[in-house]
Amino acid sequence: MRRIPRKVEIEDDAGKVTRYVRHENGQGYVSPQASVHRDATVEIGAYVEAGAQVGALARIGRYSWVDVDAVVEHGARVGNGVHVGVDVVVGDGARVGAHARLGAEALVEPGAVVLPDQIVPEGSRVRVERRRRDFTAAA
């Protein structure tokens, strides 16, 4: 069985080295400058960047990337292979489907749903979809 390292260092094209530490719940990697609640889950292959915040009971899926200063609030679910852009807020209990892309400064309202593969443009707001009730009487 292959062992997952406790810490990793990644060098970008400019030569800057970023260090990450494995999160106990899920084994994903978290920057020491990020704030991830101990009850959150960061799955294998996922990264949480410096300044990001992940709340209690939130879940970051495999190979997802929570970018700089992004916030994933309490109970939110981010699917596999998602990019949560810079300064994005994913509200309490929101759901982001697999392989979605959230542009910088986007807001996913509490309880809202982003569909799989959806691209949310920079600065956009994803609102909770309210279902209309049909009160017409059956004949």
Which structural category fits the helices and strands?
mainly beta
Straight-line N-to-C gap: 65 Å
Q: Strands of the biggest beta sheet: in what spatial order?
A: 1-2-3-6-9-12-15-18
Number of continuous helical runs = 0
Low-confidence stretches: none
Report the portion of residues in β strands: 25-35%
Can you give a write-up of this model?
By secondary structure, the chain is mostly beta strands. Helices cover 0% and strands 32% of the residues. The strands form three sheets. Strands 1-2-3-6-9-12-15-18 form an eight-stranded mixed beta sheet, with no helix packed on it. It has a six-stranded parallel beta sheet with strand order 4-7-10-13-16-19, with no helix packed on it. Strand 2 (17-22) and strand 3 (29-30) form a beta hairpin.
